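Hi support team,

I'm opening this ticket because the web form for multi-chain structure prediction keeps timing out on my end. I have pasted the exact lines I submitted so you can reproduce it. The total is 224 residues across two entries, so I didn't expect it to be a heavy job. Is there a limit I'm missing, or should I split the entries? Thanks in advance, R.K.
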Amino acid sequence: GDSVTQMEGPVTLSEEAFLTINCTYTATGYPSLFWYVQYPGEGLQLLLKATKADDKGSNKGFEATYRKETTSFHLEKGSVQVSDSAVYFCALTGSARQLTFGSGTQLTVLP
Amino acid sequence: DAGVIQSPRHEVTEMGQEVTLRCKPISGHNSLFWYRQTMMRGLELLIYFNNNVPIDDSGMPEDRFSAKMPNASFSTLKIQPSEPRDSAVYFCASSNRGDYGYTFGSGTRLTVV
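Hello R.K., no limit was hit. The queue was backed up. Here is the completed structure from your submission:
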């Protein structure tokens, strides 16, 4: 079945550092890929998405590129802020048309 | 658009009591999902509906859990009787097209004592 593996956390960075959170997937066919963010005490919010190979999703300075050859969708940001502290989830929708989530990565950004 | 609306935001109940969680999806969305989130198990899909019809309830943990969607604008998740291990945050989400992602509600934090 479909699965998503993402980088174990927690990740702690200083403000303005570069962020990478790795995500790889297993799916049949051509899944759509997503990153969701969950701030403390809130629900999940869609951060960015990519629906086909080589697409780059971007939002709020975050980027991720759909790499079919490596089955990856790594999240990056060039300069993180304290306000980026949250839990980040990689996810996909495959042939079953259901969202399959990774386990989440806790990011803490220190001033 | 008000987004996906869940109620209540917080619920504290005693073991053995019935609990009903409510969800109003985004108007026009034809799929609705119930998730449970815990530290131990992360996000788990409990059940989802397509056009008000339950499609997959294999994630519902026990017969104590039931979900209904009587119309396109309302769904409930009921736990009867509740147990302390049911304590979690329960999220509802809706979607128009799965490949465009889901919109999540703010969740209901359930505590069973």
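A quick check on our side: DSSP finds no helices and twelve strands in chain A. Let us know if the file doesn't open in your viewer.
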